[in-house]
Design brief:
Elements: E1 2-3, E2 6-9, H1 13-22, E3 26-27, E4 39-42, E5 45-48, H2 59-68, E6 72-76, E7 79-83, E8 86-89, H3 101-112, H4 123-148, H5 169-177, E9 189-193, H6 200-207, E10 213-214, E11 219-223, E12 228-231, E13 236-238, E14 241-244, H7 248-253, H8 260-267, E15 273-281, E16 291-293, E17 303-305, E18 320-328, H9 336-349, E19 359-367, H10 378-391, E20 394-396, H11 398-401, H12 408-428
Parallel strand pairs: 1-13, 2-3, 2-14, 3-10, 7-16, 14-20
Antiparallel strand pairs: 4-5, 6-9, 7-8, 11-12, 12-13, 15-18, 15-19, 16-17, 17-18
Helix pairs in contact: 1-6, 1-12, 3-4, 3-5, 8-10
The structure holds flavin-adenine dinucleotide.
């Protein structure tokens, strides 16, 4: 049996960062590192696991990336929304100019008259209060239902922060008349790796500074009393402190000693799931866009992105690529082949793909844990679970260990904080 003072479960960005700052070994279930920020290559095309861009201002993350030598390019965002058979620039709130006049007037009028409702009690009420009924009902509510797979009335809004752009009246007014003003929101410019490895280049570079990485080590049982992790490959590893970045519900499932109250709390944690339908196209520059949002229900995907516009190295020369993201609920996963055919049909319908375009390759990637849902039970359930984990010397970390809406830079910082916590505890002991 291997023995370590600290081990890290999961080799995504949080696990990698925890290892970079503590030198503890990583045990990762898959045959490569990166987690949801990894990329997959097929027939010379590299696809991320859903669109990934870096929009960090955090100096410690920027310094780390410089240190490990990730070569990145800065891009000016070209993002759109497809609604009422029209492509309008993102964000919708300041770019309604191409839409039917009645809709523009409604969005503007409701924006002016917003904020008269009582304090919002849920995400839908928050939308009405923040951007008005017109924008909410035309874009954000249908988009949210399609993306989160949950009625926004069931959600809280504590996660919104700067994730939903909040324009002023002048920007909305100008956008309804003529402007293509798109410089609001968190990512008017963003960075993306130059390498053929796509966004996965970040994890690959972090790997060089991390401790030992053990791949194809899927934890299947944690014996908390004896502090031993059992893996599906038959190996067992003894630890003193465990940093876990695996999804909280999975972690609790593999701890037989977890009391019923903890299992009950874990059963309340909800997530959406996403299938990413990727197509390599044997045609150059099929679109100048980075990404497009699709709020309308008759289109299968909620978002399209064009990897060839993020880096010229992620497709073979002279070719293009498309990634279509489709949310689904885990109780009803779509069949990959049927989904692929539906996505191709919809791509042609929205004029994102010509009917005779030569498809060079296809790949469907499943992300069972995609975005953690902020509903009314999330906060109290997490508190109960985290308190218990602390009592058994397990440090939860990362997007799915903390069950939160972290961007990749926040996942890195979370791993770093876990390493710091560990080092402080060791110093105090
Ligand atoms: C669709 C999508 C789009 C996104 N877009 C962006 C974006 O544009 N910009 C941005 O900054 N961020 C984006 N993010 C967020 C970013 O990807 C995450 O914050 C970050 O990658 C999370 O890293 P993590 O290490 O916390 O989790 P993960 O990447 O999930 O890492 C957890 C690891 O644990 C492993 N694991 C699971 N179970 C076990 C087990 N039993 N034993 C051992 N290992 C196990 C998994 O294989 C995985 O490698 C996006 C996320 C998604 C889902």
């Amino acid at each position: 049996m291997l023995e370590n003072s600290t081990i890290i479960l999961g080799g995504g960005l949080a696990g990698l960062a925890a290892s970079v700052y503590s030198e503890a070994p990583i045990f990762e279930a898959e045959d490569h590192i990166g987690g949801v920020a990894a990329s997959d290559t097929v027939d010379g095309f590299t696809f991320d696991r859903g669109i990934h861009i870096l929009q960090t201002q955090n100096t410690s993350v920027i310094n780390l990336l410089n240190d490990i030598g990730v070569d990145m390019l800065t891009h000016d965002r070209h993002a759109y929304i497809y609604s009422h058979e029209t492509y309008t620039a993102y964000p919708f709130q300041v770019n309604t100019a191409g839409l039917p006049i009645g809709l523009r007037i409604k969005c503007l009028w409701d924006f002016i008259n917003r904020g008269r409702e009582q304090d919002p009690a849920n995400y839908e009420e928050w939308m009405y209060r923040t951007i008005g009924k017109g924008f909410s009902e035309t874009f954000l509510i249908p988009y949210s239902e399609k993306f989160w797979m949950v009625n926004p009335k069931e959600m809280t809004f504590e996660w919104t922060g700067n994730r939903v752009p909040k324009p002023n009246l002048l920007q909305v007014f100008r956008g309804a008349l003529w402007s293509k003003q798109t410089k609001i929101g968190t990512n008017p410019t963003f960075r993306y790796p130059v390498a053929a490895a796509g966004y996965g280049a970040i994890a690959e570079a972090m790997q060089t500074k991390a401790g030992t990485i053990n791949l194809q080590y899927r934890a299947e049982r944690i014996d908390l009393r004896n502090k031993v992790v059992h893996f599906t490959n038959g190996e067992q590893v003894k630890y003193d402190t465990l940093i876990s970045t695996i999804p909280l519900p999975e972690l609790i499932r593999i701890c037989p000693e977890a009391p019923d109250s903890i299992r009950a709390a874990a059963s309340h944690l909800r997530t959406n799931s996403i299938k990413v339908v990727n197509l390599g196209i044997d045609r150059p520059n099929i679109s100048p866009n980075h990404w497009v949002h699709f709020p309308e229900k008759d289109i299968s995907f909620f978002r399209l992105s064009y990897p060839h516009n993020f880096s010229e190295n992620v497709t073979p020369p002279g070719m293009s690529s498309i990634s279509a993201e489709v949310s689904y609920s885990r109780s009803n996963p779509p069949d990959n082949e049927q989904l692929l055919q539906k996505v191709i049909k919809d791509l042609i319908k929205v004029k994102a793909l010509e009917a005779d375009a030569p498809v060079a390759t296809t790949m469907v990637k499943d992300i069972p844990y995609a975005y953690c849902i902020y509903d009314k039970q999330r906060k109290s359930s997490i508190k109960v679970i985290h308190d218990w984990l602390s009592s058994v010397n397990v440090i939860p970390s990362g997007r799915y260990g903390l069950w939160t809406y972290f961007w990749s830079d926040e996942a890195i910082l979370s791993g770093k904080r876990s390493a710091e916590k560990l080092l402080e505890t060791r110093k105090a002991a």
